[in-house]
TrEMBL record:
Designated name of the protein: GNAT family N-acetyltransferase
Pfam families reported for this sequence: FR47
InterPro entries: Acyl_CoA_acyltransferase, GCN5-like_dom
Gene Ontology MF, one: acyltransferase activity, transferring groups other than amino-acyl groups
GCN5-related N-acetyltransferase Rv2170-like domain residues: 193-249
Length: 262
C-alpha cells in the first residue's frame, strides 16, 4: 500500500480536478488529519476517514494492473464501505462480495437558470424554528432510502446543531409560513447542499426550487461552486434540481464490500 499525504500532487492533476465537484467528501476528507490516503500516484486515490464513514475512491481511466493495485490497497486498508464511480464498481465486483448498492447522482451548478419562482423569501433558521426543523428532519430520515431512522430526540439534537451552524436556510411563503429547508457545508471553493426537505403539504408548489435557486445565487456570488448528491430513484426531485441549473457530472455507487470467500 502506498500512503500519500493530503497535499500530494495527484490532487492537483488535471484528471482529478476535472472530477472534483463530484467528490466533495474526498475534498473534505483532505482537511481531516485522521484520514488515510492511498494512491498509485496517477490513476486512483483512496480516501478513508476515521470511524464508520464510507471510504471514497476517485479514479481516472487505468489499466488492469492498476485495478490489482487498487484492490490490494482496499484489502490492506480493510475498507468495508465505499463510494466510487459506477464504472469502477463494475471493475471491483469480481474481487469482492458487494451488498447494499445505492446509486446516487453527483450534481454541480455553475449558473442558475431563469424560471418563474414562487413569491417568498429566504431566511437563516434561528432557534425559534427548532421544533419545526426537528420534526422535518425526523420525517426526512423516515423517507430516506438506505438510511437508518433516528429517534425524535436524536433528530432534535441534529436540528439544534444545524441551526447553530448558521448554515440552515428556510423558505417563507407570502404569509411568512415556513415551507422548506436546506443546509450548506463549505469546503474550499465547494459548497455542498443537503438536508433539503419540504413540508408534505407544501410539496410540488415550487418552494424548494425557489430556496435552492436563491441559496445557489448567494453562494455563486461569494465564489463558491454548489454541489449536491441525490438518490437517482427520485426522478421528480432530480428534475427540480436540474430546472434550477444543476448538472449531473457522475453517477456514483455506494456499496458495502467484503473479500470473497471460497
Amino acid at each position: 500500500m502506498t500512503k500519500i499525504m493530503a497535499d500530494h500532487s495527484i490532487f492537483q492533476s488535471e484528471a482529478y480536478l476535472k472530477d472534483r465537484t463530484a467528490f466533495y467528501y474526498m475534498v473534505f476528507n483532505q482537511t481531516l488529519p485522521s484520514t488515510q490516503h492511498a494512491s498509485d500516484g496517477k490513476h486512483y486515490v483512496i480516501s478513508k476517514p476515521e470511524g464508520h464513514y464510507p471510504t471514497w475512491i476517485w479514479n481516472d481511466d487505468f489499466d488492469q494492473r492498476a485495478i490489482h493495485d487498487l484492490v490490494s490497497d482496499l484489502k490492506a486498508m480493510q475498507v468495508q464501505k465505499l463510494t466510487c464511480k459506477q464504472a469502477l464498481y463494475d471493475e471491483l465486483r469480481p474481487y469482492f462480495e458487494c451488498s447494499g448498492l445505492f446509486k446516487m447522482g453527483a450534481y454541480y451548478l455553475s449558473e442558475v437558470n431563469d424560471f418563474c419562482r414562487v413569491p417568498g423569501e429566504m431566511i437563516v433558521a434561528t432557534p425559534i424554528y427548532l421544533n419545526l426543523v426537528a420534526q422535518w428532519w425526523y420525517e426526512a430520515r423516515i423517507e430516506m432510502a438506505n438510511v437508518q431512522e433516528v429517534s425524535k430526540t436524536a433528530a432534535r439534537q441534529e436540528a439544534k446543531d444545524l441551526i447553530a451552524s448558521g448554515n440552515l436556510y428556510l423558505w417563507l411563503d407570502q404569509d411568512q409560513c415556513p415551507c422548506c429547508m436546506a443546509h450548506i457545508q463549505k469546503c474550499g471553493d465547494l459548497v455542498k447542499f443537503g438536508h433539503v426537505f419540504t413540508a408534505k403539504e407544501k410539496r410540488q408548489k415550487g418552494y424548494a426550487k425557489a430556496l435552492i435557486a436563491s441559496l445557489s445565487e448567494d453562494c455563486i456570488a461569494k465564489a463558491y461552486c454548489p454541489v449536491l448528491y441525490t438518490d437517482l430513484a427520485y426522478s421528480a426531485s432530480n428534475k427540480a434540481y436540474e430546472k434550477v441549473g444543476f448538472q449531473l457530472s457522475h453517477i456514483l455507487n455506494h456499496v458495502s464490500i467484503r473479500e470473497e470467500t471460497v
